[in-house]
Automatic annotation (TrEMBL):
Family: Belongs to the D-isomer specific 2-hydroxyacid dehydrogenase family.
InterPro entries to which the protein is assigned, alphabetical: D-2-hydroxyacid_DH (IPR050857), D-isomer_2_OHA_DH_cat_dom (IPR006139), D-isomer_DH_CS1 (IPR029752), D-isomer_DH_NAD-bd (IPR006140), NAD(P)-bd_dom_sf (IPR036291)
Protein name: D-3-phosphoglycerate dehydrogenase
Species whose genome carries this gene: Aquimarina spongiae
MF term (GO), any: NAD binding
UniProt keyword Oxidoreductase, yes or no: yes
Top-level taxonomy: Bacteria, Pseudomonadati, Bacteroidota, Flavobacteriia, Flavobacteriales
Origin: domain of life: Bacteria
Signal peptide: none
Keywords: Amino-acid biosynthesis, NAD, Oxidoreductase
Amino acid sequence: MKVLANDGVSQSGINALEKVGFEVLTTTVAQDQLVDYINDNEISVLLVRSATKVRTDIIDNCPSLKIIGRGGVGMDNIDVAYAREKGLHVINTPAASSGSVAELVFAHLYGGVRFLHDSNRNMPLEGDSKFKNLKKSYGGGIELRGKTLGIIGIGRIGQATAKIAIGVGMKVIAFDPFIEEVDIPLEFFDGQSANFKIKTVSKEEVLKNADFFTLHVPAQKEYVIGKTEIAQMKDGAGLVNAARGGVVDEVALVEALEKGKLGFAGLDVFENEPSPAIKVLMNSKISLTPHIGAATGEAQDRIGVELADQIISILK
């Protein structure tokens, strides 16, 4: 049986599948050519990440397809219910990349409070001639320790983010319409451990009391953070979105940054991905990454192996 990893898969995943007799193809096939390619090559398993869309055209017209796999958490690029209704297995790896995304959130947070994203733009240009001016410009940073992190969506990635925040010494408050309480276990290098219980509160309470915000929610029709929500935040707050493009109103975000309502933002995902708005890309108060939350070697190895294990379990 053949597996098409259209958005790539780790070598560890390939090895696990080939070991039990699967043929793994890593050709990146254009979206409009996928149906023909799957049929011509009698593909049994289609693996995707966030780039490839698996809609009804593929589901209806590819009779050889038995499994659709998503390397990661969110499956908004797959018509999951329809696929399952048609008898296909739909799998994902919800826990494999949580830690990687959480670490990227804190990369943006640390960069934001110490202006690293802007300093790294200007030091190469003016560091030799305006060192003292730049030192003055970037010398007003603040510490994360002792501040309050507001987590909107306290699922697996939100919980992984909370772990880091607790370790940093931050207070954590969270909103999630589907979760009332979570246990956050922290395991340390020497075998010691601690457990923290977080009870979720209202969205309004999080917006009012947090110094920094991070979103961990699926794609949805309405903005989770828009002009109304930003107005409820503290002046100078920071916001990170490493969830999905479209959950933050980027027009309202840029306006709030320009007016000083928000201090900084970190974005790993964008409304117009893969062509983000120029106003977003050029704003000096926004720390930018190109949707790399799960793109660590460790996370990709875990994703590949977990997908392989599920495929083998279903088809072997």
